[in-house]
From TrEMBL:
Organism in which the protein naturally occurs: Methylocella silvestris (strain DSM 15510 / CIP 108128 / LMG 27833 / NCIMB 13906 / BL2)
Organism domain of life: Bacteria
Pfam family, one: AA_permease
Protein's cellular compartments: Membrane
Alphabetical keyword list: Membrane, Transmembrane, Transmembrane helix
Example GO biological process: transmembrane transport
Topological relation to the membrane, as annotated: Multi-pass membrane protein
Annotated protein name in UniProt: Amino acid permease-associated region
GO cellular component entries: membrane
InterPro entries: AA-permease/SLC12A_dom, APC_superfamily
Amino acid permease/ SLC12A domain: residues covered: 40-437
TM region positions: 34-53, 59-79, 100-120, 140-163, 170-191, 211-228, 249-268, 299-325, 346-365, 371-392, 412-430, 436-452
Length: 474
């Protein structure tokens, strides 16, 4: 008997599903993983990007935009927690729109999610390249790091992690996100914000509103970067052990974490750097650490920034692939994308599909434009989310179905969210009007393609997986 051949045969079939069995995503995640997914995607916004808001309106305008954006995303987190703890399916807001509104809305929301996360992943890869190049320059070996190679390797390696399994991927995110958050706290306490010397320095660097009150509105554009992506926790809905508990707990604690980190980050940047420099820095917290003169803290913030970019890109790959997978499974996109790996239980085709797309954007598009693309896609999704929760409460009142979480003061959060989204659109238009119009044209053309071509493949009856009663009024 040829034992090696028997072993090889057993190895090939060890993880294969039974014949005819449906391979599904694995339910292996808990609240900590949900927190790591949401905060891991977003925390990079504290290490880069937010400071462009300072360039738009000054440090005071950036702080105001930070808190306004915090209110906007608190509304998003509360609304998301209610709907997703009830609609526990991969795709997050896409699954919500599919069940609550209809196919065209669901297609658009799915596309917004995919583009928002992919462009955020691209932004992270660009910053990782810039950071390693800057660190090499500080060490006196400027030519040792090729930025383009770092970008490509970052995207490919993190896609490979996602391909291999969600539990290991998000456990890694939990560890490196926690380390990145600790680096912000360490820098905050090192500069001793309670000391009189630091307070005097902060007063000297703050210059009021150099562009007037309009600067606050303009700063709101990049103020969103402090929190963009927290809604990504919903993409794990089909892979958590207890959606009704884990999703609200992980999302809302993640939002609290980000509000604290955002305020500390603003204080650190505005307290150590003039607003003119801060407003154009690529890695503001790393630059702040260098200004302290403490080499250990500088290295800590280097790794903190690097970990934050990796955690964010890692989470973005996870979220974009889940949204695309869900659209493929429902035939909104070719069903080929709806496949699950028989061994790793991941949407492997959707993961691999976006690797060359992300690399192409990363090596050819400026950072501020990829950030704007991500922000605008997110804003479109938030606007429709405000509509979704109103229709959700109207069609399925509170006691008609079980909810894992009920957000308070309805409909005030949805109306406030809609108002702040409108302000953010105007803020983006002030600085990136051409890009805003071009993106709207892209999404309109995509909608026309779906209605005229793709919709005929959609099987409406197969989409509705929730055991809900008939909606009110039907």
């Amino acid at each position: 008997m040829n034992r090696p051949e028997i072993s090889a045969a057993k190895a090939a079939t060890a993880f294969a599903p039974p014949a005819g069995a449906k391979v599904a995503l694995s339910r292996v995640l808990g609240p900590g993983h949900v927190w790591a997914l949401g905060v891991g995607i977003v925390l990079v916004g504290e290490f880069m990007g937010w400071n462009f808001a300072v360039g738009k309106g000054g440090a005071v305008a950036a702080l105001t935009a930070c808190w306004l954006a915090g209110i906007l995303y608190t509304c998003v987190a509360m609304i998301d927690s209610e709907i997703t703890s009830t609609v526990a399916a991969a795709g997050g807001q896409y699954a919500q729109a599919k069940h609550i509104i209809g196919p065209l809305m669901a297609f658009n929301v799915g596309l917004y999610l995919v583009m928002a996360y992919t462009m955020l992943e691209v932004s992270n890869a660009i910053v990782a390249g810039d950071l390693l190049q800057s660190f090499a320059t500080d060490l006196g070996v400027a030519g040792a790091v090729d930025k383009q190679a770092v970008i490509v390797l970052t995207i490919v390696i993190l896609a490979w992690f996602n391909y291999r399994g969600v539990l290991a991927t998000l456990t890694l995110n939990l560890i490196i996100t926690a380390a990145a958050f600790v680096s912000i706290v360490a820098l905050f306490f090192y500069i001793r914000p309670w000391s009189g010397e630091q307070t005097e320095r902060l007063h000297a660097l703050l210059t009021g509103l150099p562009y007037g009150s309009l600067g606050i509105l303009a700063a709101l554009h990049f103020g969103l970067w402090f929190y963009l992506g927290i809604e990504g926790t919903t993409q794990a809905a089909e892979e958590v052990r207890s959606p009704a508990r884990s999703l609200p707990l992980g999302t809302l604690t993640g939002m609290m974490t980000l509000l604290i980190a955002a305020t500390m980050t603003w204080y650190i940047g505005a307290g150590l750097m003039p607003w003119e420099y801060l407003g154009q820095s690529i890695t503001p917290l790393y630059d702040a650490a260098k200004l302290t003169g403490n080499s250990y803290l500088e290295i800590f913030l280097f790794f903190g920034t690097l970990f934050a970019t990796f955690a964010s890109a890692n989470g973005c790959i996870n979220d974009a692939s889940r949204a695309w997978f869900a659209m493929g499974r429902d035939r909104y996109m070719p069903i080929w994308f709806g496949a699950v790996h028989p061994k790793y239980r991941t949407p492997y085709r959707s993961i691999v599909f976006f690797v060359p797309i992300a690399i192409l954007f990363a090596v050819s598009t400026p950072l501020d434009q990829t950030i704007t693309f991500s922000i605008l896609s997110g804003l479109l999704g938030y606007t429709l989310m405000a509509i979704s929760i109103i229709l959700f409460r109207r069609k399925w009142p509170l006691k008609s179905i079980d909810r894992g979480y009920v957000h308070p003061l309805h409909p005030f959060p949805s109306l406030l969210l809609m108002t702040l989204c409108c302000l953010a659109y105007f803020a983006v238009y002030l600085g990136y009007g051409t890009q805003l119009l071009a993106m709207m044209a892209f999404y309109i053309v995509a909608s026309a393609w779906f209605v005229l071509h793709r919709y005929k493949y959609v099987r409406r009856g197969d989409q509705f997986t929730m055991p809900w009663p008939r909606p009110q009024g039907y």
